[in-house]
Amino acid sequence: MIKGKVWKYERENINTDEIIPARFLNTSVTSELAKHCMEDIDAAFVTKVKAGDIIVAGRNFGCGSSREHAPISIKACGVSCVIAPSFARIFFRNAVNIGLPIIESDEAYSSAAEGDLLEIELNRGLIKNLTKNREYVFKPFPEFMRDIFETGGLMEFLKAGKF
């Protein structure tokens, strides 16, 4: 189960350069990438976000470059999940590969407000907005994808012999 506070970005097409600016891609050290997550959209994001928090954003989140630094920076700064009506295909794949749950939900995007507390059950396909006492349903991930998220990403999943 995932539980965290919402950080909402009501923009469509937030691209990977905005998630982690290209000027910080001279490292693959996750703690360094985390320091600059969402910097060009919300300069104070990394000082506000707490472990377990959730990003809720507009359609086509993660478009642009195919770099996996974008979902890595999100996960490394403590974000437990990203919710959007849709994701760029390569961002979706990279997020799964590094073990960052991403959920497509128009309802949750439309209804959730910054600061709301959400509880997410990946196995049931259920998002509970505890602040507003509302529930949103999404298509649950297949068991193997939940295993990838739970083990911390595809490489850890393979190392654990889960395939």
Q: How many DSSP-defined strands?
A: 7
SSE pattern: EHHHEHEHEHEEEHH
The SS-based structural class is alpha/beta
Largest sheet composition: 7 strands, mixed
Description:
- The protein has 163 residues and is an alpha/beta fold.
- It has helices spanning 16-19, 30-34, 45-48, 69-76, 89-98, 106-111, 143-151, 154-159, and strands spanning 2-9, 54-57, 81-84, 102-104, 117-121, 126-129, 134-137.
- The chain has a single domain, classed as Aconitase, domain 4, CATH 3.20.19.
- The chain is built from eight helices and seven strands; from the N terminus they run E-H-H-H-E-H-E-H-E-H-E-E-E-H-H.
- The chain has a seven-stranded mixed sheet with strand order 4-3-2-1-5-6-7.
Short précis:
By secondary structure, the chain is α/β, with parallel strands linked by helices. The protein contains eight helices and seven strands; from the N terminus they run E-H-H-H-E-H-E-H-E-H-E-E-E-H-H.
Topology:
Layout: E1 2-9, H1 16-19, H2 30-34, H3 45-48, E2 54-57, H4 69-76, E3 81-84, H5 89-98, E4 102-104, H6 106-111, E5 117-121, E6 126-129, E7 134-137, H7 143-151, H8 154-159
Parallel strand pairs: 1-2, 2-3, 3-4
Antiparallel strand pairs: 1-5, 5-6, 6-7
Helix pairs in contact: 4-5
